[in-house]
Amino acid sequence: MTIPHSDAAIPDWLRQRPPLVHESLVTFPRKHLMLVTINRPEHRNCLPVHATIELGALWKWYDTEPELRCAVFTGAGDKAFCSGMDLKQRLVIQQTDAVPIEYPHGGFGGMANRTGKKPIVVACNGHAHGGGMEMIMNADVIFASPNADFRLPEVIRGVSALAGALPRCMWLFGNHRTMDLVLTGRILTLDEAVSWGLVKEVVPLDKLVSRALDYAEEIASMSPDSVIVSRLGAREAWETGVQRATMRGQELWADMLMRGENCHEGLAAFRDKRDPKWVPSKM
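RESULT FIELD:
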C-alpha cells in the first residue's frame, strides 16, 4: 500500500513531503510524531529488498524533517512485527546468481545499523525474528505485546545474522546468553526479553501503539536539541566505548548544544517558572 501524497494525508505542520513507500504505511497521528507500520501481514511483515531500501530513505527523511521529533515503528496485524528478510526472494537471488541490490547505509530495514539523529520507539506486536530482531536490537526503546517473542534463527536457514545483531547481542546480553541464542536459533521468550533488559514494558495488543505514541509524545515534549545530543552521546559508547564516547560527545556536540536557541529557552523557562517553547532543532 502506498502513502497517499495529498494535502489531507500530509499535515500542514510538516515542512517536507515524505518519500513514497509501498510496503509500509506512514502516518503522522500527533504533532511532531511519525508512525511507520510495515504493511505485509500476510507475509508476517517480512521485508523484500525494495522494502528495506524504502525504509532506509524514510528514516533519512525523518532525520532531516525539522518538525519531527520521535518515531514509532510497528507491524500490521497481530502475528509479527517483522519476521526478517523475504527468504523466498533471497532464494531466487541465490538460484539465479543475480546480484542483489545493496541495502541502505542503515542496513536491514534501514535500521539494523542506523545511527541517525532522532529516536525510534518500537511497538513490537508479535514475532521479531531474523532481520526483525536485528532491527529491534538497534531500536531506542521497545514496547511489546504479550504474544511477542524474539529469535535469530539464521543457523537453521544456513545463513548468519551479520546485519549487526551478533555484536549488539554480545554488548547487551553477554557472552553466554548470546551464544545460547545464536548457536541454537532458539526463541527468546518475552519474559526473558524483559528480564534481560531488552523490552521496557509489556502492553496489551489493542493498546500497544497508543502506549508507544504516548511515550514518543513525552520524548517530543523535551528539547529537540537535547534529545538528539543525549541520544548520540549515549550511543557513542555502543560503538566506541565509554572514554572515547565521552570525549566525542564533548568535542562534537557540547558547544553547539550550549549555544543553541533551545538551551537558552530551557534555561530561561526555568528562571521564569514557565513551560519552555522549543523551536525545531538545528543540530
